[in-house]
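Consider the following input, taken from an annotated entry for Ferredoxin--NADP reductase, chloroplastic (Vitis rotundifolia).
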Amino acid sequence: MSVQQASIPKVAVSPLELEDAKEPPLNLYKPKEPYTATIVSVERIVGPKAPGETCHIVIDHGGNVPYWEGQSYGVIPPGENPKKPGAPHNVRLYSIASTRYGDFFDGKTTTLCVRRAVYYDPVTGNEDPSKNGVCSNYLCDSKPGDKVKITGPSGKIMLLPEDDPNATHIMIATGTGVAPYRGYLRRMFMEDVPSFRFGGLAWLFLGVANTDSLLYDDEFTKYLKDYPDQFRYDKALSREQKNRNGGKMYVQDKIEEYSDEIFKLLDGGAHIYFCGLKGMMPGIQETLKRVADQRGENWEVKLAQLKKNKQWHVEVY
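Applying the prediction step yields:
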């Protein structure tokens, strides 16, 4: 760590007892008995030219629903399930976008990054509210003080492995899939956690439509300035950039651009994470397979090895 990096002040967090557990909290609240939390704030975090709306939603759980970075909360929207009259809606899972200490660093809140799911009729081109996403619209429309039913936390696959504080973490996201990485990066670069001093490399690839669609860009840009030796940040803006073949620039094109480095880092034990819409994975897998072929490697064998070594982490929805 350079002298410059050592002098950058970090934010004190509490309660540090949140570091004591040896295992992540899991399913403290279940769908039949959810926890009633309170909305603190709802903020639109994309610019006017972004297709669609994405909101940053802070929820007060009073310290009663602790979680670790990379886990998810379930949300049960109000109303009844149209497929099961009289029954509540099914749980919707959202990746948590904050560290265990939350955006106020006091261990009492969690943050969700939610894109409003809107349905447009393919024939008329008009919005059809009857087919809009029930939960995402409920969350994006909620107001400070509103109550929200949450379950969880759930998930182990995206937990940040901290046994080696000097490891390399390659994070690949499309859209709101950036949520868990915001948590990781705040833990690595923003928070003063005595038991976790990050000395490795974090490399974020974020794919969105355009500049106005970038999420948490100011936070990531600050880490780049403050920790140039430890953080890399590459953006794929599909409506603004072209890939080397003249087509739209997707996240897999950025991966291909840096494929030699990425493969070397994986061979050295780096962790690689994928989070976002499940449609992102086939294109990424194809790219990785093509790169492996060019390097004279068998991708299936390599992938099996990465999974066996617990270096491969995927959460898509």
